[in-house]
Amino acid sequence: MVNVTSKTGFLLMGFSDERKLQILHVVLFLLTYLLALTGNLLIIIVITLDHRLYSPMYYFLKHLSLLDLCFISVTVPQSIANSILDIGFISLGQCVLQVFFFIALASSEVAILTVMSYDRYVAICRPLLYETIMEQRACRYAVLAVWVAGGLSGLMHTAVNFSIPLCGDRIIHQFFCDIPQMLKLACSHTFINEIAMAAFTTSTAFACLISIVFSYVQIFSAVLRMPSADGRTKVFSTCLPHLFVVTFFLSTTGFEFLRPPSDSQSAVDLMFSIFYTVIPPTLNPVIYSLRNKAMKAALTKVLSREEISQRIMHLKVMFRL
């Protein structure tokens, strides 16, 4: 038994102490992780290889898939390893890195979803100015800002969170180093710095939400004025998946981080943590690929025997050179 009262790390309680349930957790999480890994990698590969998808919308989608891939890799592999080894110990260094990358990637995901909504707004409501506004350099700067903003948010949260003194056994009732659960271990409830940081993060997320809502109000107003039913269908096929992803991710994350803290563990905590850490990265590739004809056509082309044979021949020629 790991001495969790020491300052060397934390004990993650996970889902259950029963070995059968731990094995079930491993199987389910492993299958989910492999599905997310495969789906997001396919989107990245397809958008990179198919020149027909060289547009801002798919450029942002590729970075969303990269964020999803990294986001689910921060928590799920560690949880699987803990269940296999029947230990819940995570070192202080691992916990610091997990909190940093978790916050950084979650913040970047909110930012990229906001950028994607603005891209759809310009494409539908300002089509004549689309190529000017969403030109290649602007898209690159937007993605760079997304990653930098996420990194800064992760640094600030990590620095503030681990500067708070902790008391008692370092037991976290989660399958990863979750900030709301870690704050329950604080020696005092007067952690002003963390409250200020939470207020800053909440206001930033709320600003992103307002921007997304404004974009989609304008988009749906424009769609309803379209005389062509085919045009409306095309717009809905690209906008509705994005709107679903935004709503699901922000609502589940907001519920977990904004609700009043509780001293006892509940199934609701674990359920909602899965909703915003595991489900979105797994479902996003399915949602975007199934609702998008261009993505389905590109995926079929990339996975076709002829295309695979051409890629293999090309690689053989490259290695011969």
TrEMBL record:
Which membrane topology describes this protein?
Multi-pass membrane protein
Query: Which CDD domains does the annotation name?
Result: 7tmA_OR14-like (cd15227)
Q: Does the keyword Transferase apply?
A: no
Keywords, alphabetical: Cell membrane, G-protein coupled receptor, Membrane, Olfaction, Receptor, Sensory transduction, Transducer, Transmembrane, Transmembrane helix
Classification via Gene3D superfamilies: Rhodopsin 7-helix transmembrane proteins
Example of a GO cellular component annotation carried by this entry: plasma membrane
Per its UniProt record, what Pfam families does this chain match? 7tm_4
Q: Cite the PROSITE patterns for this sequence.
A: G_PROTEIN_RECEP_F1_1, G_PROTEIN_RECEP_F1_2
| UniProt keyword annotation of Transmembrane present | yes
Compartments, as annotated in UniProt: Cell membrane
G-protein coupled receptors family 1 profile domain boundaries: 39-288
A GO molecular function term, named singly, is: G protein-coupled receptor activity
Transmembrane ranges, per UniProt, are 23-47, 59-76, 96-118, 138-156, 195-223, 235-258, 270-290
Similarity annotation? Belongs to the G-protein coupled receptor 1 family.
Role of this protein: Odorant receptor.
The protein's name: Olfactory receptor
Which organism encodes this protein? Nannospalax galili (Northern Israeli blind subterranean mole rat)
Give the gene that encodes this protein.
LOC103725444
